[in-house]
Amino acid sequence: MRRLEFLVDSNHQALRLDVFLSENQKEFSRSHLKKLIEQGHISVNNSQAQAKYRVKTGDKVILNIHPPSSSGIEAETIPLKIIFEDEVMLAVNKPAGMVVHPAPGHAKGTLVN
User: Fold this and answer.
1) CA 72 to CA 40: how far, in whole Å?
2) Cβ(45)–Cβ(37) below 8 Å
3) Which among 29, 43, 44, 49 would be 20 to 30 A from 88, CA to CA?
4) Are residues 88 and 43 part of one domain?
5) 94 DSSP 8-state letter
6) Do 45 and 91 lie in a common domain?
7) Distances (CA, A) of 3 to 74, 79, 96, 112
8) CB of 36 closer than 8 Å to CB of 28
């Protein structure tokens, strides 16, 4: 778990908690921050707060970031024709009828696998 701490200064007085956080870090969107607040991963002065909470000078805001959980998707050897590949992009010729990602009834043999 990673922990980020912020101390509210007078320049940020009276901002909503979600707005304050979105202005003070660029890693997460405001909507994602709202979800983290709702899930209890963000506290103000060691107490859970709501996104609409208005921060005050001297408030200590703590953001606990948990590592993402494993997707559970297992890699498979599936023959695919690679059309283009470089260090940032891969283009493949997906066969018609191949499911793109695992879903109920299609856990294996998908493009994601």
Assistant:
1) 25
2) no
3) 29
4) no
5) P
6) no
7) 30, 42, 45, 32
8) yes
